[in-house]
Request: fold
Amino acid sequence: MNLTHLRYFSAVVREGGLRAASRNVHVTQPALSHAIQKLESELGVQLFDRSGRSVVPTPDGMDVYRLAQQVLAQVEHMTTEVAALRGLETTQVRLAAPPMITNSVLLGRLTRFFQENSGIRIRLVEMSGALIEDAVLRGEIDIGVVGRAPKLEELALEPVIEAEICAFVGKFHSLAKQKHITWSQILDHPIASLPKPYRLHDYLMQIAASHSRTANMVLETDTLTLLISILRQNQLVGLLLDSKDTVYEGLRKLQILPETEEVERYDTTVKVGLCYRRRPPMSEAVRRVMSALIK
Reply:
């Protein structure tokens, strides 16, 4: 069976006649008529009632039309999938994540991905979660790694891991022997963390306001290597994300304990997930990267 004949037949049904279908598929009306006659001969049924001035699908014709839509959709899907697989060697997947999530979530997963896959290039950009959602929506980023569910209905979220906001200090810090710390203690010290518009910065400002205090932010940077280096060598308290994949060499972790019911409203758990557009369907390369990051 000729797929072109199925497409021509579907166009005639969809457009309601030979003339409109002819313009739509860019062939002559005699060519359309000939294709439909060939299809009727192959199937052994009459597809159109030609008794009147217009061309009307018969009941058999409508049954064939519904089946033809399924066949053509499957062919289009197969063509897209094969093209995606064939293009893996030159495909670049655009990935965006906040710097702390890059370190706490992506580092180990991307290492394993490149050990197990070849032919897919990844371009990783670091930015805040709010900017990531906009970039994914505009199609500038294929996968965004975020710490909360996207607000826009056009975006979907695939959960990956839970991380926790913790305090970190250098091994020579006066607090280095402690295992826990309160928010009051954190606010008693100079603090280093992410700047606006990162969620962690806003979170800290909310905590300080709940204590009627001002956070003494002496270093605001999204360059994680600089932040870690400064924390190692100075009497600062850093607010960073911690997960089972996180490694901050030379730093001591202090779990943050709530002090009052008011502060308990601020959950230190961050649910990290992969943000992507619901439409159009993602390529095979993007699917492979998504699968590797979820593992």
User: Anything to note?
Assistant: The CA atoms of residues 45 and 60 lie 7 Å apart.
